[in-house]
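Reopening this ticket.

The earlier resolution said the output was attached, but the attachment link was broken on my side. Pasting everything inline this time so it's all in one place.
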Amino acid sequence: MKNVIKKLFLLFLPTSLKRLIIRPYIEEINKLKQVNNYVNLSFSQEGEDLVLSRLLGNKSSGFFIDIGAHHPMRFSNTYKFYLLGWRGINIDPLPGCMKMFNDLRSRDINLEIGISNDLMANLTYYLFNEPALNTFDIDTANKLIKENNQYHLIGKKNIECSRLTDILNKYLSDDTEIDFFNIDVEGMDLEVLKSNDWQKYIPHYIVVESLSTTLDNDFNSPLNQYLSSLNYTFIGKTVNSLFYKYQFF
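Inline output:
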């Protein structure tokens, strides 16, 4: 109940107050960086943003697509880049989530919609007490409920979905260079990837969630086989994220 009240309180706070709340946090980060040049700031759950920074050469500007964005800051693989001046598209189907994105990440394009490989799909979205685990995939939802008593289903909602290529056709110009895709959609990652037009939208890097327990499983997965067929090379891994690089000819 306390968490619900806290979320409602934050949801209806004026944007100016939200920024005031965040400002001391950002100022403290800047102080730490000035005092200690060895500090590497990460907003990601497993340091994925640090890996991306290394791969991208600490670019001061760029463009990303974040599918399953979840939250503008928490567990975010893209917020570090936003602070550097980057822009991107944040996509997440959680009802009401984009109000906070619009408040805190106004340079970005923020879309409250699901992504599917089916045209004009309307899918059931399974909502958990931990929003980062919300999913369209019934098998993933059932597995979470069965294997972890900490998480439980709090509701279901039918959500309108679009193909990724249709979203990008609408919001991107033909000459937009995409530095990376970040995909974290709890069991629907391959479906999201298949909904892209790979002749038109080719990110330099892809970060995608994988809950496989071994590298052998990752190498032999349908997701890895699919990306390999598109000239992407598996170049790295954190505990639950895979990194791919496009091989330009």
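Reporter confirms the inline version is readable. DSSP finds ten helices and ten strands in the chain. The mean pLDDT is 90.
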